Amino acid sequence: MPRVLDQVFSFEEMKERWNTDNPNEPYARMGQVPSWYDLNEWIIRVDDNDKTISTTGWNEHPEYIMIGGTKSIKGSAKGHMADLVPYREKKISSDKPQLATFVNEPRWIAASEGIGWKIENKSKELLDSVPENIVKKITEYVESKDVAWGIKPADGIKKWQMVLKKSFTPLNEMEEWMQVFINSIYEMQGKLDRGTGRNWFAITDIIQMVAYMGEGAEHKDIMRKFGEIVEIIETKYKNGKELKEELNKIIQRRKRELYQ
Length: 260
Description:
By secondary structure, the chain is of the alpha+beta class. The chain has helices spanning 11-21, 80-91, 106-113, 124-127, 132-145, 174-187, 189-192, 198-213, 219-236, 240-258; strands at 3-4, 41-46, 52-60, 65-72, 98-102, 148-152.
């Protein structure tokens, strides 16, 4: 099952590992990166063979944190953001605003604003929380690249795993529930990722969507997404009922293991 390595790499360390693992797809940045957007801390997601399949980085400054996007290997297992973002949030400070650029598309902007980013409507107070020279530089940059940018307020940053106050299982915290549910799904990947892989892609897309929903999400909305995954398993596979029963058994086992 893909996992995030428990290590923070420098850019050169990340690039060296990426290129060693993927000689046919070497790491390359898209154009010249401005010095103020240089990222010096990176995390890596690997596949079952410990081969690098995706990465993301950040740079923590005294007054703010610059956040980078996610780069992945073509055709690699989905779920990159679902795995990388929670791990990154554990590593960075929660008392500083985060800055990032975004693809200038409505659906991506809406998804990002849904997890606390302020992109289209940044208040003066929010802009004042970031050094003026950085606001000027990033504004000029996005105008030249036709992309968007946003700020995630320091007081709005919370682990997205904690959005649930309760669950339909005995698990009461999102971090624990996600650990059990998602790991159970990936344990079944060999049985779910079959044929064209269309159903598996749909499942991992929902997992990523849950990761993006973040603090503002309501309990019922999160659980509805989990329900959609179960519905795909039950209705889109010929042996769906058996797979659903197996998933439930894996979840119960992982719950017991969690508290051993």
